[in-house]
Amino acid sequence: MPQYTILVVEDDEILGNNICTSLQRHGWGAQLASSSEDALQMLGKMHPDIVLTDLNLPGITGIELIGRVRDADPDAKVILMTGDGNVQTAVDAMKAGAYDYLSKPLVLAELKLLIERALDARRMEKTLSFYQNREARDAGLAALLGNSPPIQAMKTMIRQLLDAEAHMAANDLPVVLIGGETGTGKELVARALHVDGVRGDGPFVEVNCASIPSHLLEAELFGHEKGAFTDARERRAGLVEAAEGGTLFLDEIGEIDLALQAKLLKLLEERSIRRLGSVKEIKVNLRIVSATNRDLEKMVREGKFRSDLYYRLHIITVNVPPLRARGDDIALLARHFLTLHARRYGKAGLEFNADALKVLKGYGWPGNVRELRNMLEQTVLLAAGKVITPNQLAICPGLSGPCDRDFHTLDSYCMSVPSNGVSVPEVERDLVIKMLDKTDWNVTKSARLLGLTRDMLRYRIEKLGLERPEH
Ligand SMILES: Nc1ncnc2c1ncn2[C@@H]1O[C@H](COP(=O)(O)OP(=O)(O)OP(=O)(O)O)[C@@H](O)[C@H]1O
Fold it and tell me: Mind listing the UniProt keywords for this protein, alphabetically (predicted)?
């Protein structure tokens, strides 16, 4: 199925069919409507990316149709084909909300270029609205709960940084590297820097460098020209361009390979990119924040991470403390997530008893805040009464106390073999779900921690019919 669809509205059937054939030859889906009325009916079923309409149509005119399409499907881009070359018509079309216009007789190469541009714009808007919707759900620093000394010290440092940045030029903000174990809240910190900072009105574009295979990451980041590689059927802007005026958050920066590291260095140094297959430099104006749970210094020593990139990335470093070092914040966060999940599952009034709080505080939390949140979801789901006791907490009692083990070791500690037998497929399912929860459905990371390849894990996710739960 073609990735993009175009609805052509043209009452001259021969011309309309010719346009559709030409568009299909470029790999786009195209359908013909011979009147505006037909087009409006097809709109609901087809949800085209682009509506290419003639001006002079019987019944509803092309200009009127533009407004109707904008009302019915605001995401579709409308291009008007005008026969008269009249400037006023073009102005009316743009006022009505057209993306652009073309004069007849059509030059197919021009039409193709215009459609590529409109598709680019549409893709970019989609990306931005996705990120902006996500962003709207989260506040800035206020969303980072916790009053323990290490969290307070971190928040103070962030506030000082934001204060200093308020007096700086927006395109001169220092690059920030956020460090900390998995699940500590690095992404929340990155969002806080964005939302509470001078670029708060711009987009926040997050790229998880670990979840995109490295051969695709470059194209995702920098975009590509048509034909730059086998699958590059369209010209596409990358996520760096999508972050223009806002923040580019490179999560799990330690996972990118050395070749791409060189390109990132260029972005940081020259603030410009080149789409794959293009010779044109595009200047970008954005703030770069990155995060990692890896020891980048060690990676530099081992030759796995470029030292020049490392020095560029960590001009300012924010270290997010592990949950086990946050004392009373554990109880505060636990109560917060208990209330949150209880509301979701319609189980108001849940509370921990004193022993449960003691167990929570004494546990090592290798998966940090994410583990606490996920664990409590299960607790709430299974809770029969109002009071949560230690045995309702899905943590391994043997792990109470500081924990410095990795996931592999941890899970092997959690294994017990019931005397009435165990089903291996069930264990497999359980293990996959637990690991995906632990990594917030980061397939690459889960695969690594399970000792599988990404494809093997993907296969299992499909086979087991697993879907990421909505939060
Ligand atoms: N201080 C906090 N207050 C409230 N929620 C928090 C806090 N810290 C983390 N969380 C929540 O815990 C979860 C994990 O946080 P986040 O994704 O920011 O961690 P991370 O360090 O970026 O993880 P990873 O290293 O795996 O990418 C999220 O749901 C986040 O909202």
Answer: ATP-binding, DNA-binding, Nucleotide-binding, Phosphoprotein, Transcription, Transcription regulation
